[in-house]
Specification:
Length: 244
């Protein structure tokens, strides 16, 4: 148990550092690895809780909130409320091996998308925001990956990369809050998840501080390549053992 807690702490520290440097992605960086320590329900609820706390602190103590498209964030979060109950229904139906496969494939899908240079974009239509918001809600409470559907939608709007990251951070934070409330209302969150969350908060704060210290000292291009390599490795790490 002590060894597992130590590994979980290291995963959270690294994921928090990378999330601060990238502006989002804590669940992407952490959930595939945490799924080897916790069951699917614990992994998702822990990842969402830690991600929401991290993004809340970033929005509070940094200037990323100033670049956020507030109107778009509210619209996406509002539509996600439809998808959140669907994700809650699906989560208990997924066994651990299938859950790892889903996380792994979603992670690899994101790596492929980013490797294409964000050239894969949805048409700018009135359906983009509702569809992405609903799917984001489903993904949030079933896998924790609420950001993935929204990444495509942000390409439909006239936002620079910093505004995209800020808007995505605001959306993931808002969806995370409502997801946690929904978990509490249906009784998914248990004392074990709360204990694990409290235990991992110091690790999250360590990662937050380290990330803030180095955020302006690292090349953005080199950082992006490192992110994609890291995500590709953990995506494969989640997929391959579940196939054999």
């Amino acid at each position: 148990m002590i060894f597992q807690e130590l590994i979980a702490s290291i995963i959270v520290i690294v994921a928090a550092i990378l999330a601060v440097l990238s502006g989002f992605g804590f669940v992407l960086f952490s959930a595939p690895l945490l799924s080897y320590i916790y069951d699917p329900v614990q992994t998702v609820s822990l990842s969402i809780a830690l991600s929401t706390l991290l993004l809340g602190l970033l929005l509070l103590i940094t200037d990323i909130r100033k670049a956020m498209d507030v109107n778009l964030v509210f619209r996406l979060v509002a539509w996600s409320l439809i998808g959140i109950p669907i994700g809650i229904f699906l989560l208990p139906l997924i066994d651990k091996s299938t859950f790892r496969l889903i996380l792994g494939f979603l992670t690899i899908a994101y790596v492929i998308y980013r490797s294409l240079g964000r050239n894969l974009k949805l048409p700018n239509s009135n359906l983009c925001v509702p569809i992405a918001g609903i799917l984001g809600g489903v993904f949030s409470t079933s896998t924790g990956f609420s950001a993935l559907p929204v990444v495509l939608v942000l390409g439909c709007f006239d936002l620079n990369p910093y505004e995209e990251r800020s808007t995505l951070a605001g959306y993931v934070f808002g969806t995370g809050v409502f997801s946690l409330v929904a978990y509490q209302l249906v009784g998914i969150t248990k004392i074990h998840e709360l204990e694990a969350f409290l235990f991992l908060i110091p690790s999250l704060l360590i990662g937050l501080i380290i990330g803030i210290v180095f955020v302006h000292r690292i090349s953005a291009e080199g950082l992006n390549k490192a992110f994609l390599l890291y995500l590709g490795v953990i995506g494969l790490f989640a997929i391959l053992p579940s196939l054999f």
